[in-house]
Amino acid sequence: MTALVTLADLEERHPAELLTLAADETTGFRDDDRIDAAIADATAQIRGMLKARYSVADLNRLDEESRSTLRIDAIDITLYRVALSFARSSERIEERYKAAIKRLEAIVTGKAALSFAGDDGETRDADASPADIRIDAPERRFTRRTMNGL
Question: Which InterPro entries match (predicted)?
């Protein structure tokens, strides 16, 4: 399972917050192992929610736009999990976590959608459900118009 966010993403977007939240209680140094565990937990949580609507194969074919969208939510969820792990949660972090969960729930319920890279590099229709049946067939030969003279 590929992580939706990396430690480098967290460092790039929230360097001071990451340092403040993830400082080890005894040494004062940032505990990257606990951050990595929070990243894995956040990725599992997000993928678990999305599996209600998308297959595992679909989630592995996310295009870059959808990965970027999920990265935003993964960052907020990861920071929340890091804060909980170090007992340093705040209202602001919790609000960002709840907003990320709401955005994910909107995707799951169909109010928002993800897009996927197709086998040919094309992006799949964003509002298509994995349960949609798509048929590629030739045009009908027998219609009311063509049968009118019979």
Answer: Phage_Mu_GpJ
